Amino acid sequence: MSEERGADGQWAIEATNLSRRYGRRWALASVSLRIPSGATLLLAGNNGSGKSTLLRALATAIRIDRGEVFIEGMDIRRDRDAIRRKTVLLDHHAYTYEALTAIQNLSVTASILGIPHGRRALMPVLAEAGLGDRADDEVAGFSAGMRKRLSIARLLLRLPRSGGGARPSVVLLDEPYNQLDPEGFRLVDQLLERLKNDGATVVMATHLVDRGAPLCDLGLLLEQGQVAWSGSAGDLPRHSGISQERLF
Amino acid sequence: MSRLAASLRKEMLLQWRTRSQVIAVFVFGATCLLLFSFAIGPNAAALRALAPGFLWLALLLSSTLTLAESFHLEMEERAIEGLLLLPAGDGAVYYAKAIANAIQLSLLGVALIPVMVVLYDAGTTRIPALAGVIVLGAAGLSAPGTLYTAMTSRLRARQTLLPLLLFPLIVPVLLAAVKATSLFILGDPMEQARSWIILLVAFNAIYWSLCGLFFGRVMEE
User: Fold this and answer.
1) Contact A109/B86, CB-based, under 8 Å?
2) Confidence at residue B124, expressed as pLDDT on a 0 to 100 scale
3) Pairing between β-strand A11-22 and β-strand A25-36 as defined by DSSP bridges
4) Is residue A244 pLDDT above 80, yes or no?
5) What is the interface size between A and B, counted as CB pairs within 8 Å?
6) Model's pTM, two decimal places?
7) 3-class DSSP state of A75
8) Which of A217, B130, B137, B161 has an alpha carbon 20 to 30 Å from B168's alpha carbon atom?
9) CB-CB under 8 Å, A104 with B78
10) d(CA A38, CA A35)
11) ipTM over 0.90
């Protein structure tokens, strides 16, 4: 993908024959891709096509069964801890504690990251994610959309404007628009713009190709765990031979 | 070290927010002691002689509840995966959880002593020494218990598998803890308690060092 961009710099993500199986089923089968530093990739595909598995593998949340993956030149098997300092994953799961309040959840993450974790430091982050007025409510009472917003707040903690801590240069977003209202959609759009301006490499899996494509440079289509198509993100929904209806 | 402290703070916060569970586990442990006493009947000498064993059985059974609950909270929204993906290191996450479980079990053990004294007439003047044995025994249960609960937390048969895997492993700790407790309650004319405590310390050292090493691997999907 995008040879000219990778030629003069390091590949942020380089995967060769990346494979992962669950039981007998291969969720990813020989996926090879190269993403240049600072690029934004839109990852598309049907349910079960392997998008989440790919993102989780790149984030080191799951191990790979075959192939090689390098994140900013670091081997995903050998340099797991170093890669975790460089990557951040917005997962399907909110990664939150139901029994804690929104601000307590953020405080836990911030204190482990070694960044300021007091109320004063965290309230702006919660407010940015649209949860400023629900800071002291238990997550157990949150809707799916509010949980997603809290996950986004958790991700915002690790971005430069929040100050300090380990700053990731590779951001992996798994269905960031899911469960969100239109205002939440705009929040994700702004997040993407901010990540691009910061020079982060972003991989975003979404079914909302029309919304995501204008914000992304590159596109990649997965089908049954294999790369079915790759190219410019703008071309992705209109790729010849694969109708949008069939894909999404 | 600061990450361990931060993780431990999180564990304590979670335990405080779910403190009703702690009371439920205490009631469970006390109920176990009560039922065991029914099995022996009104034989005061037998009750007193078997009290240390029953105390540790009650603690062991209660530990499966506390360990399972500690990971239930982590698995609801896969919060533990979120922590492991932070640049915190697997070790901080494991040791914080194991220490928190050890503290909870120790407090439970100390709280069950008065119940044991009342039900089994098994009093002792060596309360600090007995509390020390309970802390060491609880630590010896918690280190492998935390690891095995992590291993089984994603499995459907976790409630069955946890005791099946854990109980055989902690036999040396249980044996040493029962023997040391028994010597403190029934008397120690030959001063044997020291050797059992050394055994407890040794197994704790082994469990706490090895389990910390394996935790990262165990949590990998």
Assistant:
1) yes
2) 82
3) antiparallel
4) no
5) 86
6) 0.87
7) strand
8) B130
9) no
10) 9
11) no
